[in-house]
Specification:
Structural class: alpha/beta
CATH topology: Spore Coat Polysaccharide Biosynthesis Protein SpsA, Chain A
Number of domains: 1
CATH superfamily: Spore Coat Polysaccharide Biosynthesis Protein SpsA, Chain A
Radius of gyration: 17 Å
CATH class: Alpha Beta
Number of helices: 7
Distance between the termini: 32 Å
Shape: globular
Length: 230
């Protein structure tokens, strides 16, 4: 299973902490975050990785090279202009060879990726999303599923919500059919593509028992630093 890592984000919210470095190279526990992601993938025997890069692409390639020292083989799909998460995947279409794992470049989930793909395959779905339960989901968007784990809808952040909910952990297993649903040009996987697939009953949620680490905000970066500090 080939892995696509969406690592083209600007990291604007982290500028005070990481300067002009791309978000994926933010140091977490003394190690660039992307290195931690790649080590996690390698630990699950996922070693064929496409990095979808944009801002700071040269810095990322200089830091990671071909991935050999990290136990993976890296390919690079470069954006010439910001394309969003959906557009980055559409541009990387030539790298698609079969079922794929897609991971946000600022997310590290505690999950078995092969269990996620197995859930997708068993349901005959186009995609499976790793879902994590938050006890207080007021500040997060929610994912609602039916009794058969089919995703019914994505609910935007709702400050009136109280209590727990399942949230998107930024880790997905997809069949090649995903690429037939990606629009050309810039798009958002989360806003433009996943809701349409859910409306057609083509997405399932896979409940994860572990935690996930999202460094996309200063608070998330600080939380991950505490977790991985030496």
């Amino acid at each position: 299973m080939r892995v696509f890592v969406l690592a083209g984000g600007l990291g604007t919210r982290l500028a005070h902490a990481i300067g002009d470095r791309p978000k994926g190279l933010a140091p977490v526990g003394g190690r660039p975050f992307l290195e931690r992601q790649l080590a996690w993938l390698a630990s699950h025997r996922l070693t064929d990785v496409v990095l979808c890069v944009g801002h700071g692409a040269d810095q990322i390639e200089k830091a990671l090279g071909d991935g050999q020292r990290l136990g993976v083989r890296l390919h690079y799909s470069r954006e010439k202009e910001p394309l969003g998460t959906g557009g980055a995947l559409e541009q990387a279409r030539p790298f698609v060879q079969g079922p794929t794992l897609v991971v946000n470049g600022d997310t590290l989930p505690e999950i078995d990726p092969w269990a996620l793909e197995r859930s997708r395959w068993e349901h005959g779905a186009v995609g499976a999303l790793a879902l994590f339960r938050l006890e207080d989901a007021q500040a997060s968007g929610r994912v609602e599923c039916d009794g058969d784990e089919r995703i019914l809808r994505f609910v935007e952040k709702d400050t009136s919500h109280r209590g727990p909910a399942w949230v998107n952990g930024g880790c997905y297993a997809f069949s090649p059919a995903l690429w037939e649903s990606l629009p050309s040009g810039a798009s958002s996987l989360e806003r433009d593509v996943l809701p349409r697939l859910a409306a057609r009953g083509e997405l399932v949620g896979h409940a994860a028992s572990g935690a996930f680490w999202d460094i996309g905000t200063p608070q998330g970066l600080e939380r991950a630093e505490r977790r991985f500090a030496k």
